[in-house]
Every structure is written in structure tokens, then in C-alpha cells.
Amino acid sequence: MELELTEEQKLLQRTLRDFAHKEILPGIAERDLKGEFPWRIIQSLARLGLMGLLVPETYGGIGTDYLTYTLAVEELARFDASVTLTVSAHNSLCLSHIYKFGTEEQKRQFLPPLARGECLGAWALTEPQAGSDASALETTAIPKGDKWILNGRKVFITQGSLAEVYVVMASTDKSKGRGGISAFVVEKGTAGLSVGRREEKLGMRCSDTAELILEDCTIPRDNLLGRLNGGYMDFLEVLEGGRIGIGAMAVGIARGCLEEALKYSKQREQFGRPICDFQAIQWMLADMATEIDAARMLVHKAAWLKDQGKRCPLEASQAKLFASEVAMRAATKAVQIFGGYGYMKDYHVERYFRDAKLCEIGEGTSEVQRLVISKELLK
């Protein structure tokens, strides 16, 4: 595993850092308050190739590796986790699922406009009664002639009200439980597909999260994605990449907390001295920096394994678990260092504190990650 970044990777980091200062930070507090989706920013990122990071040029993307993808995610999350979640869910869930398990015809039909950022993709797994226990999903897909008829309800879907292409998991044989789940591509405007409630969230407020309703939703038979009844194992593999992305996002949020806290601690004076002179503050900063570096290494290790073409359920869950909890601890310490000001919306750390929590919940809670890790250890 190579620890030194390439010149191209360093250039990407600098490019995204400059982009964030020019395009993301202006108006960020107002967007967060309103829960306004950042269309302009996403379109600009699309022009930079960020909406097709993991898709080869053949299908309209730029075909980068997973390690470079994590660097991009971290760099964006240091400034705005809502923008990052949009990019991450689009790339590592929707596009990756189609690219990994789609037919050649499906790839050529759906990937190019998605990879170019001409439209958004979403990945619909979670249901009201199927969260941590994803195998308990109740959405059904019944074959009828040359069509599939889908019925069910999906919740907490990122890009749920804005996407034009959805990857939807449904039961095709309830008698087989998790062994009877399949994936399907459903396009916006399909008869029977509608958007339900758009969620108002604690954090990542500018990321679109909505409910999907499928009522006799009729799609072509060819929209089956991957093997019939093979969806469970397929989406577990997709989730490995998704969890690496969440880990990278958590590292970015934590880094933002550290950098803001460092800057503030040098400026804020109490008892006639900058508060960074006090050991209590120094130790918090030291803990934050150490944990962030450790979390980044776990993320990079998992990404490296992914780039070697290896399955990495253990490493992906370790990276996601540790990095997300590091982000929450870093956000808590940053708010503490800012004191009363950290509780106010005038400073970024208040938003980081709210955003960080989702990393411990989305794409498998910390408890689920511990379950995955322990199962892998006990094999």
C-alpha cells in the first residue's frame, strides 16, 4: 500500500480546495438554514468530472480509483457535507451498482448521463420496517408478461425527490427471504412511481432526502439489475464502497472541526492569553489530530483493497465505524473549544456537529458495523 499521494491526486485536492473556497463557502449558512439543494454547485462539480468519478471514460466518467475517490470526498466534506453526500451517494451507490452488475446495454443506457452529471441517481433500499435489517424489506416485484410490477415504500432516500434514475431493491421471492431479493432500475416519470414526504433533517440539510412510493409501478422486464434473486449479495458489495465513502466524508468533517478549532484557539484570548496556550485545549487538539490520521489510514486501507479488486467487508466497516465516531468526537470537542460561540450558527462547527451524526447512522449504524466486524472476525 503506497502512502505517498501522486501528483495527480495532490492536484485534485488543491483543485477541490480552491473550488470550495470560491463556490461552496459563499452562502453556505443561508443554504443550510433553508435546506436548499445546491444545484449550481453540483452542476459545477459535474463539469469537473466529480459526478462520474468511479465510472470509466467508456461510459462517460473519468475512471478514477477508489483511493482518489476518497480523497475527493474528504476534501469536499471538510467544507460542506451536504454537497459531499450528494456526490457520494450518486457515485458509490447508484452508479457503482449499475456499473458492477448491469448488462452492457444497461450501462450504455443509464451511465453516461449520470456520469456526466446531466441527471442525478438514487439508491433505494431502506423501508419503514427494514432499516438495519435490510433483508426484511417488504417492497415486491412481480413479473407480468414482459414487465415487472413493483409495490412498496422506500424511506430516507438520498436524492429521493430529485433523481431521474433509481436503483430499487425489491423482493422477487418472499419464501427465500434475503435470498429472494433483486435490484431494478426505475426511471423518473415511470407510471406508479411517486415521491412522498421530503424530510427535514437535523444535519446535512441541503442534501435531498425523501420517501419513494411505488404503486403498481410498471417497468420493462429488462430493467432487472443483476441476477434474479441475487440482489442481497450484490447490494452488500455495493455497500462496501458506500461505507468507504461515508468514512472518507467523516474524515473530512473531522478535519474541518480540527482546522476551525485550531484557528479559533489561536485567536481567542482568555486570562490575557490565547486559549491554545492552555493544556486542556492542547490535549483536545492532540486527540483530534491523532484520531483523524488513524481514521484516514483505515479509509485508505479499505479503498486500496477495493482497488486491488478484493472484497473488504471487514475493512470497510472498520473504516466507516471508526471514522464516523471520530467525526462525532471531533465535532463535540470543536464546539467545546469554541465555547458558547460553538453553539451559535455564526460558526461552521455548529453545522459540523449536526452533520457528523449522520455518519454514525447512514449506510449501516455503528452497531451494524460492529456486527459485521465481529462476524468477519469469527469466521
Query: How many structural domains?
Result: 3
| Spatial gap, N to C terminus | 25 Å
CATH top-level class of the largest domain: Mainly Alpha
The low-pLDDT segments are none
Q: Radius of gyration, Cα only, in angstroms?
A: 21 Å
Give the percentage of residues in beta strands. 15-25%
What spatial order of strands do you see in the largest sheet?
1-4-5-8
Question: If you had to describe this structure to a student in words, what would you say it looks like?
Answer:
The chain is α+β, with helices and mostly antiparallel strands. It has 3 domains: 7-115, Butyryl-Coa Dehydrogenase, subunit A, domain 1 (Orthogonal Bundle), CATH 1.10.540.10; 121-229, Butyryl-CoA Dehydrogenase, subunit A, domain 2 (Beta Barrel); 232-377, Butyryl-CoA Dehydrogenase, subunit A, domain 3. Helices cover 51% and strands 16% of the residues. It is built from 11 helices and 10 strands. A 4-stranded mixed β-sheet has the order 1-4-5-8, with helices on one face. The protein is globular, with a radius of gyration of 21 Å. The model has no long low-confidence stretch (mean pLDDT 97).
